[in-house]
Write a structure and sequence with these properties.
The chain is an alpha+beta fold and about 220 residues long. The chain contains seven helices and seven strands; from the N terminus they run ββαααβαββαββαα.
Length: about 220
C-alpha cells in the first residue's frame, strides 16, 4: 500500500454474524493514532450484526481504503520534506499545467479526494471520472507535484501523467474552483481546455489525436 506496512487481523466468534461481531485488530506501525480507522471498522462490524449479514468483505475494503489514504498522505509529506531539504523553493513558485490519464476513475472516495485535495492546494482544473478518467490541474509547480504524489499513492489500474508544461505567464487558464465533470463529460473537458487555450495540448496528450504538420490538432 504505497510503501506503508498495514495489517488487519480478524477473529470470528462462534455466534458471528447473528449475535456477535468479528473482533478486529488493526496495525499500521507508521500511524500513531488508529482510533478513527478502528472505530469506523468496528461500526461496520456492528451494523452487520444488527442486520444479520456478512460484512467481512466490507470491513476489508474499508480498511484497505483507509490505509491507502494514509499512504498517500505519507507520500505527500515525504515529498515536501525532500523539497525543503533540497531548498527547491524557487522552482515551486513557477506555474504549470498537468494532464493525467487514468484507466478509470470510479471509486467514490477516490473521486472525493481528487477534488478536495486539489481545492485544499488552491489548484484549478477538473476531473472527468468514468472510463477513461482524466484529471487536468493547474497551479504552482510545487503544489502540483505534491498533489500528483498523493494521487499516485492511491491504487490505480493505470495512471499516466501525459503532459506537464510550465506556463509562460501568470494568467490562470483552467476553471476554478477545481470541479468534477460527469462521467460522460469528455466533451465538457475539451470545452474547458478550449476556453483555456489548451485544446491542442488536451487532444494530443489525453485523446492521442494526430496533429497536422503546422501543429494544429485535427
Amino acid at each position: 500500500m504505497g510503501g506503508v506496512v498495514a495489517s488487519l487481523s480478524i477473529t470470528l466468534p462462534r455466534l458471528y454474524p447473528t449475535s456477535v461481531p468479528p473482533r478486529l485488530a488493526v496495525s499500521i506501525p507508521a500511524l500513531r493514532d488508529l482510533s478513527s480507522l478502528t472505530a469506523a471498522l468496528d461500526q461496520i462490524a456492528a451494523n452487520g450484526v444488527a442486520t444479520d449479514r456478512e460484512v467481512l468483505f466490507e470491513v476489508c475494503e474499508a480498511f484497505q481504503e483507509g490505509a491507502t489514504v494514509f499512504a498517500s498522505q505519507s507520500a505527500a509529506a515525504a515529498h515536501v520534506a525532500v523539497q525543503e531539504a533540497a531548498g527547491e523553493t524557487g522552482d515551486d513558485q513557477a506555474r504549470c499545467v498537468c494532464f493525467v490519464w487514468f484507466h478509470h476513475i470510479k471509486n467514490f472516495n477516490k473521486r472525493k479526494h481528487i477534488v478536495s485535495w486539489a481545492r485544499d492546494a488552491a489548484l484549478r482544473g477538473f476531473s472527468k471520472p468514468g472510463f477513461p478518467g482524466v484529471v487536468a490541474v493547474e497551479g504552482e509547480a510545487g503544489a502540483c507535484t505534491e498533489y500528483l504524489a498523493r494521487l499516485r499513492a492511491l491504487r490505480w489500474q493505470a495512471m499516466e501523467v501525459r503532459l506537464r508544461t510550465e506556463l509562460v505567464d501568470d494568467a490562470p487558464k483552467l476553471c476554478a474552483p477545481f470541479t468534477e465533470l460527469p462521467e460522460a463529460g469528455m466533451g465538457d473537458a475539451a470545452a474547458l481546455c478550449e476556453s483555456a487555450h489548451l485544446l491542442a495540448e488536451f487532444r494530443a496528450a489525453v485523446l492521442k489525436l494526430p496533429c497536422k504538420v503546422e501543429g494544429e490538432c485535427l
